Amino acid sequence: MVTTAAGASAASRGLARRVAGSPWTGYLARRLGGVAAVLAFLVVVTFMIVRWVPGDPARQIVGLTAGEEEVRQVRERLGLTEPLWRQFGSYLGGLAHGDLGASFTTGQPVSSMLAQRLPLTIALATSALVVVLAVAIPLGTAVGVAQQRGRARAATSSFGVGASVLGAMPEYVAGTLLVFVFALTLRWLPVQGGAGFTSMILPALSIAIAPAAVLTRLVRNETATVLSQDYITMAMSKRLSNTRLLLRHVVPNVVTSTLTLGGLILVALLGGTVVAENVFNMPGIGSEIVRAIVKRDYPEVQGIILVLGLVAVLINLIVDVALGLLDPRVLTRRRS
């Protein structure tokens, strides 16, 4: 019995030493510490920023013609007459129990509103990301190969101009052009956005055009850089087929180097949904946050910004873990 217990204790100490010595331990600890710091910052900022915006939520509710006594009663009912530190304490207490509060204007719990609207926003951002990756990686790789080998010079030269123009196009301009061409002129797709496949195409394209152009240029540059390396020349001397050369040596290096930007692009796509949902009148949280800001609905603005920030932080954490799996050298690097 004593021998078994001693063996188990030695095994536990050995496991603890391996965990402590693993590069993943420090890497994940740094990332999780960063996540906690960002979330704490978000909680403070989301609470304060809505109160810095000029305007009175109580006045928005009762209307401009209401008397001061009626406005005062609404302020008291909403808890806005309490000291700021007490309001912040109540906010933190609610967050600790998973309660984001209730809307000033509708009385609906913010968590219920998010449960209804967030899936559509996530579906829109995910659809746009699929478009970005489906266009950027194959097109950028093809242009990079053609550029490196001196083929189709006119096409590769004009590619840079086209990518620059599309990459600078705002979502509302892209959305308006897409509606004019495909909905009003050709009548192929509906003007109204929604959860259906055809209703999702134009909103997703309006968000994806600019990031796809930027990422395509990055993939082109990375492909050209990889193809100029000595080990690629060595691989080509072994008479590897173009397909095998691309799949084995070029695409993995390009995907690794573009993964970080891909995470930032997905975060930007979430921001783009705010514009697209308003252009295409979609019932997601992007359109809801605009209404909440206009109405000075503090709980809804705080809840939406906090959830979007949490999604962005988790995306970056997933990208960091994926980078660690693809390139173990990053585990021992300090974050710049």
TrEMBL record:
Q: Domain ABC transmembrane type-1 spans what residues?
A: 118-323
What InterPro entries does the entry give?
A: BPD_transp_1_N (IPR045621), MetI-like (IPR000515), MetI-like_sf (IPR035906)
Q: What is its main location?
A: membrane
Q: Which regions span the lipid bilayer?
A: 32-53, 122-146, 158-183, 195-215, 246-270, 304-326
Q: Where does this protein reside within or beyond the cell?
A: Cell membrane
**GO cellular component, as recorded:** plasma membrane
Alphabetized Pfam families for the sequence: BPD_transp_1, BPD_transp_1_N
Q: How does it sit in the membrane?
A: Multi-pass membrane protein
Q: Mind listing the UniProt keywords for this protein, alphabetically?
A: Cell membrane, Membrane, Transmembrane, Transmembrane helix, Transport
Mention one GO biological process in which this protein takes part, according to its record: transmembrane transport
Family, as annotated? Belongs to the binding-protein-dependent transport system permease family.
Name recorded for this polypeptide: Peptide/nickel transport system permease protein
Q: Which organism is it from?
A: Actinomadura luteofluorescens
Q: What is the phylogenetic placement of the source species in the record?
A: Bacteria, Bacillati, Actinomycetota, Actinomycetes, Streptosporangiales
